[in-house]
Every structure is written in C-alpha cells, then in structure tokens.
C-alpha cells in the first residue's frame, strides 16, 4: 500500500535502537525524510547511517523536557519543518510502588510526560498552520493494565495519554492527527532489561495469546500507517500492539 508520505519530513525521537529505530526504518522505507535523535552522538550517527535514505541525526537529552523540545526544533531546522513527529523516549527505572520513593516521581514525569508535552507543543503550531500533520506517540500497554514492577512508567505514561487525547480533540479540525501506540512486549533491550531472559520473561509470555515477543519491524509498520494519508480520519486513538495480551472490552 502506498502511504502517501513520500517527501514528508519526520522527526523520530529516541530512534538509535528499539521501537524508535523500527519506526524510523518504516518511514524511511515509505520515502519520508527522517531525522532521529539519541543521547549519544556515536549511536545516533551509526543508526542514521544504517537507516540510509539521507537520514539525519541530532543529539538530544529526552529525559529533560527542554531537551525534548530542542530535538523537534533542531529537526525542523535541519529539514525545513516537521510534518510527522514520532514521540518516544527512555522509560523510567523499574520498581514497585512500595520500593519507589516519592522523590523519584518528578524525574519520571519529566521524561515520560513533560517531554511528551514539550515535543508536541514544539511541533503542532507549524503543522496546524500548514493544515497537515501526524503525531504518533509510543507509550505502553501499561496505560491500560499496569505492568508489575513498573510503577513510575505506569503512572507517567497514563498522564501522557490524557494529554495526547486532549490535544487530538483540540487540533483535529486543523488536519493534524494525534494517536498513541501502546506496545506490549517486543524484542527490545528495554524488555530484556526489565524481565531478563529467564523465568520472569517466560511468565510474561504466558499472558500473550500470540505466545511470543513482538517484532520491532511489525510495530514500525503500524506507526508508519498512522502517519499515512489513509489514516487522516483516525485521531485520539490509543492502539495496543501486544499480540492479544489486552483482552478487556474497553
């Protein structure tokens, strides 16, 4: 399917690896101009080279809301604007509610809520002025059903989802869509960092009807579709991509 985004300018956050990289790769394959970021210049440059298609890169600290906003500004300066924004970032440290001190929540909110807000606020004015834009945020299935041992992530990403849905309502008439994609367990460093490769991961796989970890490339294809011309009437959605793990009716 031709997605109609050839030549569109896409800023993809935290895309040197994992689901961010997979999303950038899917957009490059569709002919979009892409700029990625990482906190490490070497990783960003290597990922951009591997992605090909003239992919650009910048260094950004996405744990800091100001740094997140600068990423969008730098990408816009490099490409002459941003038509597509894929919001992504490093998740907070794992831990249960009981073992997580209250003082840890501000940093989690900075990286997984306020950074999301700042990236969107940096991108949307020009999108609205042009009458076309796509924002796709990579959040977590923990927004729907909290994951064990991820108290900070479950809390901060739920707030981000509320912001994204509110924003979607406010700018839909301007031709800008805002959706979030909620990954379940995929074969990424983040998942193995939290669950390892042993019994803990096996217990989580037992909850997935598909019986396996998701493939990052398959996830990236869904992100690319949400950025397409065909998805112009889909906004304010929070889409689980989880191998059937989420089974509630609502």
From TrEMBL:
Domain of life: Bacteria
Family membership noted in the UniProt record: Belongs to the short-chain dehydrogenases/reductases (SDR) family.
PANTHER family: 3-OXOACYL-(ACYL-CARRIER-PROTEIN) REDUCTASE (PTHR42879), NADPH-DEPENDENT REDUCTASE BACG (PTHR42879:SF6)
Name listed for the protein in its UniProt record: SDR family oxidoreductase
């Amino acid at each position: 399917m031709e997605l109609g985004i050839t030549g569109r300018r896409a800023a993809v956050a935290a895309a040197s690896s994992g689901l961010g990289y997979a999303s950038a790769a899917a957009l490059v394959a569709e002919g979009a101009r892409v700029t990625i970021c990482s906190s490490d210049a070497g990783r960003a440059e290597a990922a951009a080279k591997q992605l090909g298609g003239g992919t650009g890169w910048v260094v950004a600290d996405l744990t800091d809301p100001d740094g997140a906003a600068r990423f969008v500004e730098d990408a816009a300066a490099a490409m002459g604007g941003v038509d597509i924004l894929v919001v992504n970032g490093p998740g907070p440290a794992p831990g249960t509610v009981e073992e997580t001190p209250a003082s840890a929540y501000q940093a989690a909110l900075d990286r997984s809520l306020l950074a999301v807000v700042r990236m969107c606020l940096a991108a949307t004015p020009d999108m609205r002025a042009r009458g076309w834009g796509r924002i796709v945020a990579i959040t977590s299935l923990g927004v729907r059903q909290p994951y064990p041992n991820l108290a900070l992530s479950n809390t901060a990403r739920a707030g981000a989802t509320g912001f994204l849905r509110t924003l979607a309502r406010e700018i839909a008439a301007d031709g800008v869509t805002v959706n979030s994609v909620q990954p379940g367990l995929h074969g990424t460093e983040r998942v193995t960092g939290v669950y390892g490769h042993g019994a803990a991961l096996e217990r989580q796989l037992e909850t997935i009807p598909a019986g396996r970890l998701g493939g990052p490339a398959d996830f990236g294809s869904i992100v690319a579709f949400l950025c397409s011309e065909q998805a112009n009437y889909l906004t304010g959605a929070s889409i689980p991509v989880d191998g059937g793990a989420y089974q509630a009716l609502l």
